[in-house]
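Before the break, one more example. Copy the sequence into your notebook; we will annotate it together after we see the structure.
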Amino acid sequence: MVKIHNIIRQIAVLGIVAVIAYNVGSNRTTKAINTKGDFDLSLLSTVRAKLASQYLEKDQLDDKKQMYGAVAGYVAALGDPYTVFLPPTENKLSEDDLKGEFGGVGISLGYKESRLAVMTPLAKTPAEVAGIKANDLIVKIIDKKKNVDKDTTGISLQEAVSLIRGEIGSEVVLSIYREGFDKPKDFSLVRQTINVPAVELAWKEYKGKTFALMTINKFSDKVYEEWPSFVNEVLEKKKELGSNYGGIALDLRNNPGGYLESSVLVASDFIKDGVVVTQQETGGKKTEYKVDPKRKKLLDDKMVVLINGGSASASEILAGALHDFKRAKLVGEKSFGKGTVQIPENFSDGSGIHITIAKWLLPSGKNIHKVGVEPDVEIKWGTDPKSEEDLGKVFEEVLK
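Here is what the structure looks like once it is written out:
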């Protein structure tokens, strides 16, 4: 397999899916754009001159900072929370997030009805320990040390990430609203180093059978290294167990997504052939991502897929594809609902932009944006995601 750093990368995390690159500064690209009105920078120049001559605190004028703000505002005026301009610091945070190692409180962010929301509290992190849950709305971010008291109305994902992350051991307060709260509640969190394994494998016994509990926490770079080795471990254990092997529970709960291609890689071990996901662009152009013929290691294993409201983007692609191919039953709760595609472009100064250019479709042709994937068997998960009671219900479904 070609290494991810040497190919066009497909990202589907927090609604960010990398698909193609393009020359944003060329005259040819500019002429191809079809927009309303005239693009005239004279107003910006006039405003800049007015500030330079009249603004009280002239030492606060910073052309680079204000230029970034102007570009960010131009992009934000589209009203699409997933199309964003990222100054250098925020752009680096976005890239670090997909590497699977970062400092913070352990949450992945998205939007619910245009409000900043928790997609996933990562296991054993300050956020999960404090009781923050998927679909919680973050209404305010407070960091006294950094003099931050920020209402999140209209905030971009990258700005929110930059405010929530900070020095290890420092405190950030998230004001949270969830269904059932009379008013927002403050959660005080101490930042720590977040190092999330992409894939985890555990063996569980139930009714005389041994099951593989395969958990994918995030479709980061690490999946390309970790997933094949775990698959080989399952194959070896199957031979050892013989008739005592029960099957697989693939846990995608609280998986916020990641690289689209890594979800296709995983699907390819369970699906014999066919299209895993289709990308549909404006004008009807479609790109199909098919099963990798070099995989197909676990085609006959009994399996179910675990989902919840924190299962988003690439994890919804995988769950939806396995369901559409009738390869697996989905158990749990309705997924998050993220189905649009963005392209990233990095600029020479370290800044970048993510632009919505398409939507992705399940093998059935369905787009689940703002809809989510419905489970076949509904299970309201308890507070312990790996409780014996909940896993017992899951393994019962595998045995059916």
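The domain at 199-339+356-399 is CATH 3.90.226.10 (2-enoyl-CoA Hydratase; Chain A, domain 1). Residues 1-33 have pLDDT under 50 and may be disordered. Try to locate both features in your own notes.
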